[in-house]
Amino acid sequence: MVVNALCIVAGSLTILVVLNDVFQSVIVPRSGGRMWRVSSFAWKGLWALWPRLAQWLYGHDERRREDFLASFAPFALIVLLLLWVAGALVGFAAIFWAYRAGFAPATPTFGGALYFSGTSLFTLGFGDIVGRSAATRAGSVLEALTGLAILSIVTAYLFAIFAAFQSREAFVVTVSARAGRPPSGVNVLAVAAYAGTRGSFDGLMLDAQRWTAAVIESHLAYPVLAYFRSTHDYQSWVGTLGTLLDAAVLAMTTVEELPLGEARIFYTLGRHATHDLARHFRIPRSPAAIERGEFERACDRLARAGYTLRDRDEAWHRFCDLRAAYAPELNALAHFFRIPALQWIGDRTETHRLPIHESAVDIPTGAHEREPSDDTRT
């Protein structure tokens, strides 16, 4: 009797944990508590191993390593679905085993109860084992409803995730055309100068505000989105956010001609995004210092592009002050999600001492009054 009662309690708790996780992960449109979240532990545990496994398997092959990292989110989604199904299956099986006398024929083993639980969850209904008591019949009906609910909710979940991913990536690709390869804030301003699109900088910052707001809402509601990687080299949602923030700060502190109204608003929103996302994923701040020489090379690049620059000493101090408000969190996100290193973002051990003209920016001939020279390469 005591064992049966314990099985009922344990099975009921397991089912409640699964349903709570499905509810919090899919239905609640905001980040909730994680204490009873199976998905939170699953994502965190798998991601702690995945980058190490990628490094061990493809340590010297960057492309294959990136492909392996990109497979994490789809794989983890499948694992999460299996965990939800397995939890419901085992939870109901424990309850059915406690009521094993209410089946015809009798199912004295837990394996028999697990089998009946599976036929109920997936609505197979073979009929070789049937419930003859009120408790087993009610449990079978409830489990069938649970299985249908999980299937329909997860289907809607997948559609929501992929729609948000496509919307996010469409803007990432658009920004990459303005920011070079690999992208950088310096390139955003330089390309605008060479392409004759300085007047559209305010429009870019307005689009960045909308995109950043969507990223905050979608990535806090569905954290799995943060693990989905871009399909193109050197592109990522973290890198795009950092590139646009760097461009906004350079415009606010270093160059003279650009409109700054929308850039100031985007800076506030982008800073807010880095803090919220780093706090949500519980990522500690990471040092993100930029050397004065790097800033000087950026200024030289912008001057060659045709910008009038402010006093460099004053600009350097203002640039450092404004960037310090988001760079540690941004760098922490870049390290945590293992994004490809960019000019001032992520692991810069191999990039931060290179001249700025090392990164390619392709501008079509005729976009400006003259064809860009080698100076258009960052």
Overview of this structure, please?
This protein starts with a helix and ends in a 42-residue tail after the last helix. It has a two-stranded antiparallel sheet with strand order 1-2. The protein has 2 domains: 2-20 and 35-132, no CATH class; 161-376, no CATH class. The chain is an all-alpha fold. It is built from 13 helices and 2 strands; from the N terminus they run ααααβαβαααααααα. It is 65% helix and 1% strand. It has helices at residues 2-27, 38-58, 62-70, 72-98, 110-121, 134-179, 185-195, 201-221, 237-253, 261-280, 292-304, 312-323, 327-336, and strands spanning 103-104, 130-131.
Short description:
This protein is mainly α. It has two domains: about 1-20 and about 35-130, no CATH class; about 160-375, no CATH class. The protein is built from 13 helices and two strands, in the order ααααβαβαααααααα.
